[in-house]
Amino acid sequence: MKLIASLHRFTGQIKLHSILIRTSQSPSAPRTLKLFVNRNDLDFSGAADLPATQEIHLAQTSDVQDVPVKRALFGKVQSLTLFFEDNYGDGDEDVSRVSYLGFKGEWMRLGAAPQEILYEAAANPSDHAVKGTSVLGVGSRLGGGH
Amino acid sequence: MSHHCHDEHDHDHSGYSHGDGAHDHSDDITPALQYSLYQHIDFDAITTLNEAAPASGTAIVKKTWAERLDEEPELQSDTDEQLLMHIPYVYPTSPRPTCTGCIAPPMVA
To answer: Can you list the domains of chain A with their CATH numbers?
Structure first.
């Protein structure tokens, strides 16, 4: 099922405008959020070492925060990595909590096309033999009638 | 959860399965969120490191705008205060029969 699903998905690309996030007024509210664009390989050590695309200082509130990003840096986003580095507990609170996360921006049709598709103006069936069948054989049997 | 959905839509959200990719929340998009990227998030491919409960990171992203003030589900960190989330975006190609008012992206010849 996973494979079939993936056949119907193409990598997308967005322009990110802002992040919507809801935390809390407690010490569990994350404080520093580092954003990385198009990094598929980040673990905690990588996220701590690399310069972030943008660093955001979150507020300690239970309101939904609409945090704008620098649009020039988030114009071609295929994936976003969010690194919540610390919280308002000043080292005394080991549990960070987030209750809502959303994204605002624009969808870009560019880049949505599958990358390994071959268009042929005049396809030759013999170039695309299917295992267990013979295209020419089928054709001749159909043409040959009884 | 279905009580958060708009009244004019009576289809059931209580099953709340996004696994098949066919379910969407177009009906939850309000004017305040006309730039929402909700439908472009590849929920199945989201990864969250150091989450206390499996898939809780995905769960808070799956919350619709209408569900933004719900206390549950909630993402909590596990062994320390840090969290790392990876969120890919996709082009949604599945049929969207329930989406009558949404604007399709222009086709490219």
So the answer is: 2-108 (2.60.120.470)
